[in-house]
């Protein structure tokens, strides 16, 4: 088996490779996104104890732990932590390592290279908090679990050294601290309006309960009002009117109260040693007060006040430098102030020339004192949020923004492609439109005049540019293409208009390495934001956006300006949407939860009735006939069998041209494709019976064209599929011995089914030679279906198929593999159900390109579109055609952003990048010189032969 699959791989020609070696990382691009960073788990840290420079370590809301280089914002390394639970992850700095806890595991990574040093996974309980002891205490790691237990792990091996389970079962674990006296654990009381705080101190060495344990009297309305740190516990009471402090590490449990100034709407606490800065915010101002406490008596005294500044949008961050503690105040207007822990006078102040202009969520700072002892270098890792875009991060150095990472684009949920404009065609279109409104004679004069004007205007410049263009062509110099709304010569540039989960809309230039052309917010003026359902190109340069919250927007695709905003009338929110052809533009159909269908924009009418397939709240699939006025009526209903549920409904791509209605075989005969533009696939699964069924249905009549059932299917894993032309490819996890009753091929199964009008060559089947056919007139003919199944070595999260302009180029199936973090390109001819089984292909089959069937498809590393890059969190892979028939553009999103272009049948319509025009011309000239040199010799020989009579 192994030999067969390797032989198959060796037989594949170069055309199945993703790209050539010199095209890797040139035609493709990748933006490694982390997502919005967590405040408590983002920090500057020296990866090696004696290192002079620091890296930025951050943990995001997507549970991605990463090291970011402060110089350029590049990702040094990153790891996807466990995302199987709803609890947030935490990360802490350690000597030479970064320790992280997520779900039921704790991991330590090398701070320089990001390699896993050790890992400990716990069967019971989830990690709530992690703390790392100092180097003097052996770098021990203490973990607080959601089952109230506390574990101490060895800092070098991660093994559990002791475990404490003595907490009251009625108490809720909240936070963990390591103080000079030991490990301090904080618990709260559930279900009471007045929640006392329970503090337990454990010895770091043995985990025994110490003296600093008991109840701190508190009146906490919510755990969100508690602020915990390694040195201080604080909380607010009386509706944010009282702030209480409880220093940790002493022997007192009596908190100290501080009165909160009037008008304060938000408080944040920043402890640093025995000093704490309290940041107060009102509606329009913010300021801070620095306090210091004594562990001996628990007293808290005010040290100094930082005067208020206009604009409440600001954050403080703490930097623990070698020569003291520093507080960095970052304001959204671009001002940055540096304070020490002793006086109110700023040590330094900076004003940015280009401020962020966005609300700041949080910041982490590093302060370095220069050699003169009086000046400072301040770097801040800042996370911002603007309407529709949450979590963009920036590096602010001495007040100036050095770089920005668009982490908000990690939450893209929908996209649509916008075609860019051809400047020449646009101008000609305007002139032709003007000529169309004139008489024949006037139009002729207008065109003649235009040609003369163009010759006068562009002719001399064109002639002058000929030598330069010829030189650039011979030197293979890249032509600088126009930017903005104008496309490039081959159509590689398009805008992917993407919508974020937070209500933002952005244009990503997939031909310019994913550059963001514009951003805009589509949040409603009032009401709750519920998300985006679809983004569609409805006309040239205009994108239509349908939101779940019953709104329809039209946006300028080139500028991001909102052109139209309409409230979708009807009953309830929008359940699904789709774009259909109208007169001169696309129309959007919005299906409401109550079953009503609205044609968008409002007031538009369909040119003809449209047939849709939707899934209702009862779990049934049904067909809708939508009249020209938008009135729907149910035409059919698909009810899954007992105990089965519909898991997905797939349709053919919006752009799926068919270049040939038949498949020419090696013996010159034809098998006619079963081409049904209304073909959809409905996948159902039975979790109890471990079965899955695939149904191909005509969406107009509701007739089931083809159906098959697979047993031993693990329904807990997703079943993904894609459908195009006359074939469907789907994947599932199978091999449940308990159901099959015998040993089975356990693993991921990849199945391809291809539909033909007849299983007999040169036969059109039931349709015969009919020129026109309607699904409503009679039942559609039953196609002949050929299928083959393969074992695939990994999970497939989503499918896509390549798309070209005319559909002449062969197809490739694109599969995102979450375990390999890669997009694999599988040529359609590998997934050909006509591959001969148990024998080598004959001459006719070899001419057709068929290969011997092998039951296993192995991953060829050369077919990975992303090469060595790792793609995290990809949820959707989309394709769109370029102007070249050979090329399909690929765009993947949902986590990272990735784009490339593929040529399934090689680049047959454009010269290769390495084609040498100089060598070609040189060869022609050399042949010309050779002919000129040989011609007299041949002529002399011919004359001599005539004289000699030969």
Index terms:
single chain, 950 residues, mainly beta, four-stranded antiparallel beta sheet, 63 strands, 11% helix, globular, disordered N terminus, EMC1, transmembrane, WD40/YVTN_repeat-like_dom_sf, ER membrane protein complex subunit 1
Average pLDDT for all residues: 87
Strand order of the largest sheet: 1-63-62-61
As residue ranges, the low-confidence spans are: 1-18
Number of helices: 6
Main location: endoplasmic reticulum
Domain ER membrane protein complex subunit 1 C-terminal: 724-947
Membrane topology: Single-pass type I membrane protein
Domain EMC1 first beta-propeller: 18-407
How would you describe what is shown here?
The chain has about 950 residues and is mainly beta. Helices cover about 10% and strands about 45% of the residues. It has 6 helices and 63 strands. Strands 1-63-62-61 form a 4-stranded antiparallel sheet, with no helix packed on it. The longest helix is centred in the middle third of the chain and has 35 residues, at about 440-475. The termini are far apart.
Set down the secondary structure blueprint.
Layout: H1 2-11, E1 29-31, E2 37-45, E3 55-60, E4 64-68, E5 75-80, E6 90-94, E7 97-102, E8 105-110, E9 116-121, E10 127-132, E11 141-145, E12 150-153, E13 160-164, E14 172-179, E15 182-188, E16 195-202, E17 214-220, E18 226-228, E19 232-237, E20 242-247, E21 256-259, E22 266-272, E23 275-281, E24 285-293, E25 300-310, E26 314-321, E27 324-331, E28 335-340, E29 348-351, E30 360-369, E31 376-386, E32 389-397, E33 400-405, E34 412-418, H2 423-435, H3 440-474, E35 495-500, E36 504-509, E37 515-521, E38 532-539, E39 542-547, E40 551-556, E41 562-567, E42 574-581, E43 586-592, E44 597-600, E45 610-615, E46 621-626, E47 632-638, E48 645-651, E49 662-664, E50 670-672, E51 679-686, E52 691-698, E53 704-711, E54 720-724, E55 727-734, H4 737-740, E56 747-756, E57 784-792, E58 798-801, E59 812-817, E60 822-827, H5 843-848, E61 876-881, E62 888-893, E63 897-902, H6 917-948
Antiparallel strand pairs: 1-63, 2-3, 3-4, 4-5, 6-7, 7-8, 8-9, 10-11, 11-12, 12-13, 14-15, 15-16, 16-17, 18-19, 19-20, 20-21, 22-23, 23-24, 24-25, 26-27, 27-28, 28-29, 30-31, 31-32, 32-33, 34-35, 35-36, 36-37, 38-39, 39-40, 40-41, 42-43, 43-44, 45-46, 46-47, 48-51, 49-50, 51-52, 52-53, 54-55, ...
